[in-house]
Amino acid sequence: MFKNQIKKLYKKPLRDLDGENGEIKQTFRNRTFLVKNARDEFSMIVKPSVNKNKSNYFSYIKRCEKIFDSKIFSKQLRKKEHLLNTAIAKHLNK
To answer: Which residues sit opposite 34 in a β-bridge?
Structure first.
């Protein structure tokens, strides 16, 4: 197992790793709501669902920086090599 293989696996979002073949196409369902209109009848309205943020640790840190507009979260990435080495050890022990 090489470092680049683990790095690609570790940086891939979690939702892509759920399939049996390793990669599955991500599909989202639309939400349907029954809404009462002016004539006291119900009509069905379809809205796209709100997606949850599913990602790995590195994307999470980048998203935190963007939300809080601060670089304090990137200081956690100093342990990046340690995280990568623990991921390699975890996959080698399987």
So the answer is: 44
Cα–Cα distances (Å) from 60 to 5, 11, 35, 36, 64, in that order, read 21, 11, 36, 40, 6
Show the domain range for 61. 3-23+52-92
- Considering the domain boundaries, does residue 29 fall inside one? no
In a domain, 83, yes or no: yes
In contact, 30 and 49? CB cutoff 8 Å: yes
User: Which among 67, 80, 63 is positioned nearest to 7, based on CA atoms?
Assistant: 80
Mean pLDDT of 55-59: 75
The whole-angstrom separation of Cα 12 and Cα 79 is 18
Q: Which helix (H) or strand (E) holds 27?
A: none
For the entire predicted model, the pTM comes to 0.34
